[in-house]
Amino acid sequence: MVMDDIKILDAVERYIRGEMKPDERLQFENLRKTNAEVDQLVVEHTLFLQQMNQFGERKNFKSSLNEVHTDLTEQGKIDSMKLKGRSKVVYLWKRYKRVAAIAASIAGITTITISALVWAFSPRANDNVQEMSRQLEVMKKVQRDQNAVVNDIKNQINTDKKAEKKSIQFKSGGTGFLLDGNGYLVTNAHIIRNSKNIVVINNKGEEFDAIVLKTDNAKDIAILKIEDKSFKSIASLPYGISKTVSDVAEPIYTLGYPRNDIVYSEGYLSARTGFNGDTLSCQLGIAANRGNSGGPVFNHNGEVIGILSTKETESEGVAFAIQSKYIFDAIDQLKKDTAYQSLKLSSKSSVRGMNKQQQVQKIQDYVFMVKGD
User: Fold this and answer.
1) Which pLDDT score, from 0 to 100, does residue 185 have?
2) pLDDT tens per residue, range 205-236
3) How confident is residue 271, by pLDDT bands cut at 50, 70 and 90?
4) pLDDT tens digits, residue range 56-70?
5) Is 17 helix (H, G, I), strand (E, B) or coil?
6) How would you label 126-147 residue by residue, b for 16+ Cβ within 10 Å and e otherwise?
């Protein structure tokens, strides 16, 4: 049984209060037997509820004691003006033990506990604050214990998820790169086609879950989104996305994952169109291997001019890239859903003017390996 924190606590509380149906209770008891963390959470939460009940009982006893004191004062049996501070309650306790004992029995507290409460609830300057502080410390400890158990359960769930993820056989792999600091990426549609599970891995080896937001099979473009709590948003990207193709013979380079390490390759733009004059792509004079698909193609200013997608099978050093202007088309289609209105592509490159080594050092953290099952 896998439940999030709120469902777990809700189930524990209903179990303690006897609000579960017989079959649900049996299922939950089986969970307790097989999951030590859940069993301990039941114990800790029971203690927490008991502490809360005891606190309520203490407040009720104090109220009863004050009522007895007021009643005796009105009868003229004691003079409240003569009783100062702690002596008022101590005097009341000594003279009217029987009344206090009755109140204690109603509250369900032992005589020793009553004596301690008389001291605690006597109207000294800061006693109410001190008593609440002590009680809150107890509740805080219980809450800390509860949180620790919940975190253990959460860690176990995450561990199970990681183990499950390791058991997944990823059949396809390629490259993708960020379009936005909030985890939006672009890659080739053919890399993640029919994949139910997708992960992306950066050059530090950090792995994140991702989902598909938009695919355009005709243009071989897919927009992904990293959906992983461990991913931290990035303020801005060092490169921009160009809406135009570079000139023929202009130097270009790409970063990708034909193996587990990020690989740099350089070449030149050999044609502004692709295979057999395809206007969706452009032709590159560059060495490309399996795994480079989906990788960014940069011009000398560090601007993305394309997405590496295919290579010529009959010729060495000939590859093709989807022109980057079609990334804008895919984003425009995605933004028809209002949830993505804030997604904007930048055309400015902060690495303009740097040499290639400097550009790569700035850019490589934003290029990911993409795996699909």
Assistant:
1) 97
2) 999 999 999 999 999 999 999 999 999 999 89
3) very high
4) 777 777 777 777 767
5) coil
6) eeeeebeeebeeeeeebeebbe
| Residues 12-33 pLDDT 10s | 888 888 888 888 888 888 888 8
Contact 77, 99 (CB under 8 A): no
Catalytically annotated residue among 45, 180, 220, 324:
220
d(CA 212, CA 184): 10
Give the predicted TM-score (pTM) of the model: 0.57
Catalytic status, residue 220: yes
Structure tokens at 313: 């099978």
Tokens of 128: 């109410």
Beta bridge partners of residue 187, listed in sequence order: 222
Residues near 156 by beta carbon (within 8 Å), at least 6 away in sequence? 37
How far apart CA 299 and CA 354 sit, in angstroms, is: 12
Catalytic residue among 195, 246, 281, 293: 293
Q: Which of 190, 228, 270, 365 is catalytic?
A: 190
How far apart (Å, rounded) are the C-alpha atoms in residues 267 and 254?
Answer: 9
Distance (Å, whole) CA 161 – CA 181: 26
Distance CA 54, CA 49 (A): 9
HEC secondary structure over 281-317: EEEEECCCCCCCCCCEEECCCCEEEEEEEEECCCCCC
Check if the beta carbon of residue 272 is closer than 8 Å to that of residue 284: no
Q: Which domains does the chain have, with CATH numbers?
A: 5-161 (no CATH), 170-373 (2.40.10.120)
Asked if 52 and 146 count as a contact pair (C-beta separation under 8 A), the reply is: no
Sequence-distant (≥ 6) Cβ neighbours of residue 62 within 8 angstroms: 117, 121
Query: Does residue 349 have an active-site annotation?
Result: no
Burial class for 352, CB neighbours closer than 10 Å (0-12, 13-18, 19+)? middle
Q: Shortest CA distance to 367 belongs to which of 302, 306, 295?
A: 295
- The dihedral sign for the CA sequence 133, 139, 141, 144: negative
In the residue annotation, 45 being an active-site residue is answered as: no
Q: What is the pLDDT of residue 10?
A: 83
pLDDT level of residue 341 (50, 70, 90 thresholds): confident
Phi-psi region of 222 (alpha: psi -120 to 50; beta: other; left: phi over 0): beta
